[in-house]
Request: fold
Amino acid sequence: MNLLRSSAIAAAVIASVAAVPANGADYFKGKTLTLWVGGGVSGGVNAYGRVFARHVTGYLPGNPDYVARNLPGAGGVGAVTTLAKRGKRDGTHFGTWAQGAITEPVMRPKKKFAYDMQKFVWIGSLNSSVQTCYVRHDTGIKTVQDARDKKVKMAGTGARSASTQRTMILNAAIGTRFVPILGYRGSGGAHLAIERGEVAGRCSSYDALAVANPHWIKEKYVTFLLQSGFEKHPAIPDVPTARELTINETGRKIIEFINQPLAISNAFALPPGSDAARVKEWRAAWSKTVKDPKFLAEAKKRRMGIKTRDGDEVVAIIKKIYATPPEVVKAAARALKAEKGRCNPKVSKKCRGKRKKKKKKQG
Reply:
């Protein structure tokens, strides 16, 4: 009797061990991954996220399925917070979001955020983004100087979104008179506002626009005023960079500060404290996915720029962002609080004329 009982127990132990995949060989088999997207369904963050997710699952042990959940509010902060607080650490939850959520804790050091970008487990980033400011072709705004001489309404989403913040930073750094109009839901809502004539244009990623509205570029429906990034976009080499247009040294430094997250656009992360074995599998899957001809072909077909960085490279850039000198951060923060569309006589003769008239009236 004892011998039979011992044999049964031994068989059960062997069976239970066999049920656990050796070295995680099929760990994800039968599982469904959750991708938290910090952007709307019509935006570039969503497009990059879902295309990558479709292909990376084929390189994870067990070939899992995935579902995407969009949380576009607060410039992607909602998705970041969700992944940090509710994301499972077993490798089944991952996320991607816009750059605004990366710099928010740096820009607002006194506010308590529910996440720390330096604690996420970074898988890699798909692109080194070039941000552009563009307006509808029939607005009468053709150059940056035009945008310095008169107010230009630009579509924004939330007050802390990257598109909104960039317009205010540019006002301080190069003297434009952009006026962000808030409340539009993601890229889709912002683009619809441009078509309706509610606003003149928007500041956003060139590649994201090429994915969402390629005909705008092909048919020259929009005019590109400036671009901002680590290097010029090859599709618009004659469009000036924000760095070239800065008014002074302080302006140059804050432009460089907000440009840093662009180098890790469309980055993907696992929650802080994720299982080490799963992290290793994810990074291996990342390396294979970004070289996969099928993934690259789909990205090309959808006009998605691809310039990848691995997880370690993303970590290095995150550390550099968080080490930004306090005086630069304060200058950027002041820019966000400045009067919208304020006239700057340093770069606009029309503004100088208005100031003289105002002084005469006061006299």
Summary: The chain is about 45% helix and 15% strand. The CA atoms of residues 259 and 339 lie 22 Å apart. The chain has two domains: 8-127+264-322, 131-260+326-341. The longest helix spans residues 2-19.
